[in-house]
Specification:
- The complex is a heterodimer of chains A (153) and B (470).
- Chain A has 153 residues and is mainly beta.
- Helices cover 13% and strands 40% of the residues of chain A.
- Chain A has one helix spanning 2-21; strands at residues 26-27, 33-34, 44-52, 62-67, 78-82, 90-92, 97-103, 106-116, 119-122, 134-136, 141-149.
- In chain A, strands 4, 5, 8, 9 and 10 form a five-stranded antiparallel beta sheet that branches. A four-stranded mixed beta sheet of chain A has the order 6-7-3-11. In chain A, strands 1-2 form a two-stranded antiparallel sheet.
- Chain A is globular, with a radius of gyration of 15 Å.
- The N and C termini of chain A lie far apart (36 Å).
- Residues 1-25 of chain A have low confidence and may be disordered.
- With 470 residues, chain B is mainly beta.
- Chain B folds into three domains: 3-216, Hypothetical Protein Tm1070, Chain: A; 226-336, Hypothetical Protein Tm1070, Chain: A, CATH 2.60.290; 348-469, Hypothetical Protein Tm1070, Chain: A (Sandwich), CATH 2.60.290.
- The chains are: A mainly beta (153), B mainly beta (470).
- The interface between A and B is large, with 41 and 56 residues.
Chain lengths: 153, 470
């Protein structure tokens, strides 16, 4: 049930957001082109915008981590990511644009912002608590839309 | 052969926000851990979850590739889980935990790092504990690392004894020394138990400062311990090396200080009664010698800027010693503090793992500095120590760089490299780890300092941990 709910939320988010941004180059005031890479046949691309609701900027420490206890209600949500093997986003820190490329198909991804050693912010569902878990399949190009996180001041 | 890794603070606190009673103390603590597979083969790690009553939940198993570093964290505010976690693997792991104190608004106020321990011991030494000592106090967790219930006894250096009748398997018992009756302001302790335990200590400031420190209890002492980082009169930093005599006889200790970046060589000599501790560095460098409450003989230049290492070079009665180095800044960049454990040449190897290294990352510009000390007893040649620094820089671009000691290192001399801003060879935005090896097989030890350039004076962004010998 938990899985169905989260995926449903995600699909709603996807439908609402993806049409407006998908795959189009975006220009800023300096006419810099921001190009979302095209996914390969066996990998996915995840992209969007991430902004801070506080005065502190998000920075470029954006990772795609995994919720290891996604399917087990009894276990505490347990997130992991790997320095070497978890996708680290390419980030336009000025405009908040980001993308992950070469994302392996999977059903338990969580966008994670590292604000310092051991200090994480996870992109959550609307309740602001449960992590927003993302599913991708090979060849997907998924737009997460505009994400707002509360960076520590 | 499965290997277990214990991080006692993590085990006790990973899933809990721990409120303290006093308003000035941190409102809560959070923890995170990373682990590195230090083998050149792939393996698997298993996270085992235990409820407080000892019931084990379904474990999580995850593959870990050769030399891969993985972060783990959890959601303190949404979990009903109240218990502990054990990391198990079929490959050797090195680990570093990060403890973060937060204020009532949820903002980080202090950071403290410590390493995981592979097993435990039925006797554990705690060189430095405090009870409202100029605002500093300590709490510690005693974790049962066996499969059966155990009892434990804490014997403090002033003679006070605290009995703990029962600790369930993999569970922890917490003791907070703040306000505890019958204790002086600063002291040491020995934990003895009916089975193996791991002990982790947190030093916190409940006054106006935000300093946070942590260290692991020692399973054994060394007659000639090593302190890889001594940092005196350095932009407000000073270092206090508290050495505990864990033996049965009084002994006279001489510490020899060797600079790595600043200062001059010198010695300090203090007698430590059996079971007690004494403070090295403080009165030799940072405060007037005649402020010491016991006799201190020193050839050091009081007030001199010194960045280097310290090694016990004389121990008159050959008593086992353990020590904690506190690095403190209360002036130029106040609210900075961190604790390092003394190290042992006898336990050193030719390889050190640093699971967490970073260079100028994030909005606060986090950076690190690494110190590698030659403890082989002979000179290590230039370029003999090779550090493999791997992972990613900004934008996810891969980093795979080797660094070598740029100068020959005499015995007890150190190589300091600062992963600072745009300093070569590591790019800005690097986040990863390092493995350093003496290619000629000589013994080395090391430490790593973590600091945020733009954290501001109210945040204790200084954290340190010991390089892990493999």
């Amino acid at each position: 049930m938990k899985k169905v709910l989260i995926i449903s939320l995600f699909l709603v988010l996807l439908c609402v957001q993806s049409c407006s941004f998908a795959q189009k180059p975006m220009l800023d005031d300096e006419q810099q082109v921001w190009t979302i890479p095209t996914p390969t046949e066996d990998m996915a691309v995840i992209y969007g915008e991430v902004h801070s609701s506080t005065k502190s900027s998000v920075g470029d420490m954006v990772f795609l981590s995994e919720n290891l206890s996604f399917d087990d209600q009894e276990l505490p949500p347990t997130i992991s990511f790997s320095y070497q093997y978890s996708p680290r986003a390419v980030v336009d820190t000025a405009r908040g644009y980001f993308y992950f490329e070469n994302v392996k198909p999977g059903g338990n991804y969580v966008v994670t912002v590292l604000t310092g050693p051991g200090n994480f912010i996870f992109v959550t569902q609307d309740d602001g608590k449960m992590p927003l878990t993302i599913s991708v399949e090979a060849g997907d190009s998924i737009d997460l839309g505009k994400l707002i996180i509360e960076m520590p001041d | 052969m499965r290997k277990l890794l214990y991080l006692s603070i993590i085990l006790a606190m990973l899933f809990l926000a721990v409120p303290l009673v006093q308003a000035q103390a941190p409102a809560k603590y959070e923890t995170q851990v990373n682990v590195t597979n230090v083998a050149d083969v792939n393996g698997a790690i298993t996270l085992r979850f235990f409820k407080r009553d000892g019931t084990e939940l379904k474990p999580i198993t995850r593959p870990i590739e050769a030399y891969e570093t993985i972060y783990f964290t959890s959601f303190q505010d949404i979990s009903n889980f109240d218990g502990s976690m054990v990391i198990e693997s079929d490959v050797p792991l090195a680990s570093m935990g990060m403890l973060i104190s937060k204020n009532s608004a949820g903002n980080a106020t202090g950071y403290a790092g410590y390493i995981g321990v592979p097993g435990g011991s039925d006797t554990v030494y705690l060189p430095l504990l405090m009870n409202s000592n100029y605002g500093y106090s300590t709490f510690f967790y005693i974790q049962n690392t066996t499969d059966t219930p155990i009892s434990a006894t804490v014997t403090y250096s002033n003679g006070k004894v605290t009995q703990i009748p029962n600790i369930e398997p993999s569970a922890s018992h917490k003791i907070d020394n703040r306000g505890e009756a019958g204790l002086p302001k600063h002291f040491s302790a020995v934990v003895t138990a009916s089975g193996a335990v791991a002990v982790a200590v947190v030093e916190y400031n409940d006054g106006t400062g935000n300093q946070l420190y942590s260290y692991n209890g020692f399973e054994s002492g060394d007659t000639l311990p090593i302190f890889p980082m001594i940092n005196e009169n350095n932009y407000g930093y000073w270092t206090s090396a508290n050495i505990q005599n864990t033996g049965t006889k009084s002994t006279t200790i001489t510490m020899t200080y060797t600079p790595t970046e600043a200062g001059s060589s010198c010695t300090e000599t203090i007698t430590i009664p059996a079971g007690e501790k004494r403070d090295f560095g403080t009165y030799a460098f940072a405060f007037p010698l005649d402020w010491a409450p016991y006799t201190v003989a020193s050839t050091c230049k009081n007030g001199e800027r010194f960045i280097g290492s310290g090694t016990v070079t004389a121990n008159s009665a050959n008593q086992p010693l353990v020590g904690i180095v506190n690095q403190i800044n209360e002036t130029n960049d106040p609210n900075k503090g961190a604790a390092l454990m003394s190290q042992s040449a006898a336990l050193a190897s030719d390889t050190i793992v640093f699971p967490f290294v970073q260079q100028w990352v994030g909005p606060w510009s986090w950076w690190t500095s690494m110190t590698v000390i030659n403890v082989s007893g002979s000179t290590i040649a230039k370029n003999d120590i090779v550090c493999s620094v791997k992972c990613t820089a900004s934008g996810g671009s891969p980093v795979d760089i080797t660094m070598k000691n740029p100068e020959a290192l005499a015995n007890n001399a150190g190589w300091l490299h600062q992963f600072y801003w745009d300093r070569a060879p590591i790019p800005e935005g690097f986040l990863g780890g390092a493995i350093c090896k003496s290619t000629s097989g000589q013994s080395i030890v090391g430490t790593l300092n973590i600091l945020a350039h733009n954290a501001g004076i109210q945040v204790d962004s200084l954290a340190v941990y010991e390089g892990i010998s493999q």
